[in-house]
């Protein structure tokens, strides 16, 4: 038995981690948010340790990953069903704690599927405090109206100020913007909303959809959502998904009405290093 710590995922290890993920999700009937494909695609320049792998010979039997967004970090992990109650997660988490202490994140979140009894007990033992929950939803066959009243286009540098304004108004903070993935929606020349679209392995993701408060309740959110699905399908998406806080009833209603269904619920817990 040994522990391997890596700053970025190597493809061979990524495949072994994904095999372990399949074993765990099938056995426990839960979902995990490990973001392995995202890390392979977008986090290959990392210089700090994010991957904590427990090995039995060449096989991965335990894993914890850190996914960082600026001063915030999300931590998810798993242990093979046949290797539980051997202290594997505890040993991995000791190394994770050392890394968290060095990097001084302002926010550290521990993640567990709502159905994961073992995951929730583990987080409770670690001192995590429940923060909120998020649904992951996927688009199913549903008639969409492609006669949008809005002009939907890929963002350009001159749109960044408007995008920041929408982010501040809708989410209380601004997010990094790239012209390659962010789209804006205009009405009579005024940018009224924005959204970020990502494609990875024929799976399309919709993130950060926001409409300026003065233009809400006019159907623009649904128009942007439908345009997003059309755009991702045009790019070859075989699946389209999004995530939404369970407490956001207005957004949840919009997504359900537009043809999305709830696939899973992830619970988020705040954790402080003691």
Can you characterise this structure?
The protein has a twelve-stranded mixed β-sheet with strand order 1-2-3-4-5-12-6-11-10-9-8-7, sandwiched between helices. A hairpin with a 2-residue loop joins β3 and β4 (72-79). The protein contains seven helices and twelve strands. By secondary structure, it is an alpha+beta fold. The mean pLDDT is 92. The longest helix is centred in the N-terminal third of the chain and has 18 residues, at 11-28. The protein is elongated. Helices cover 32% and strands 35% of the residues.
Report the biggest beta sheet as strand number plus sense, adding barrel if it closes.
Answer: 12 strands, mixed
- Cα(first) to Cα(last) distance is 28 Å
By DSSP (H or I, 4+ residues per run), the number of helices equals 7
What does the overall shape look like? elongated
Q: What is the typical, i.e. mean, pLDDT? A: 92
How do the SSEs run, as a string of H and E?
EHHEEEHEHEEHEEEHEHE
In terms of DSSP E residues, the strand content is: 35-45%
Structural class: alpha+beta
Provide the spatial order of strands within the biggest beta sheet. Answer: 1-2-3-4-5-12-6-11-10-9-8-7
Number of strands: 12
Instruction: Give me the Rg, rounded.
Output: 20 Å
Q: Which segments are poorly predicted (pLDDT under 50) over 5 or more consecutive residues?
A: none
How much helix, percentage-wise, in residues? 25-40%
């Amino acid at each position: 038995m040994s522990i391997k710590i890596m700053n970025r995922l190597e493809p061979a290890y990524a495949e072994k981690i994904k095999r372990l993920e399949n074993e765990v999700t099938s056995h426990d009937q839960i979902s995990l948010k490990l973001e392995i494909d995202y890390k392979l695609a977008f986090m290959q320049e990392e210089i700090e340790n994010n991957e904590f792998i427990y090995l039995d010979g060449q096989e991965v039997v335990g894993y914890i990953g850190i996914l960082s967004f600026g001063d915030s970090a999300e931590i998810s992990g798993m242990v093979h069903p046949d290797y539980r109650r051997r202290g594997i997660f505890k040993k991995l988490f000791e190394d994770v704690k050392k890394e968290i202490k060095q990097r001084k994140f302002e926010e550290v979140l521990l993640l567990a599927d709502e159905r994961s009894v073992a995951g929730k007990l583990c987080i409770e033992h670690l001192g995590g405090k429940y923060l909120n929950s998020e649904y992951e939803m996927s688009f199913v066959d549903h008639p969409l109206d492609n006669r949008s009243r809005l002009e939907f286009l890929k963002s350009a540098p001159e749109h960044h100020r408007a995008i920041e304004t929408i982010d501040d108004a809708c989410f209380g903070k601004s997010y990094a913007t790239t012209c390659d993935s962010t789209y804006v929606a205009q009405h009579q020349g005024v940018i009224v909303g924005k959204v970020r679209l990502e494609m990875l392995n024929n799976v399309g993701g919709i993130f950060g959809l926001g409409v300026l408060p003065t233009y809400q309740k006019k159907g623009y959110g649904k128009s942007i959502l439908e345009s997003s699905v059309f755009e991702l399908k045009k790019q070859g998406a075989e699946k389209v998904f999004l995530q939404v806080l369970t407490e956001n009833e207005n957004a949840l209603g919009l997504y359900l009405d537009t043809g999305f269904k709830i696939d899973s619920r992830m619970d988020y817990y705040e954790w402080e290093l003691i």
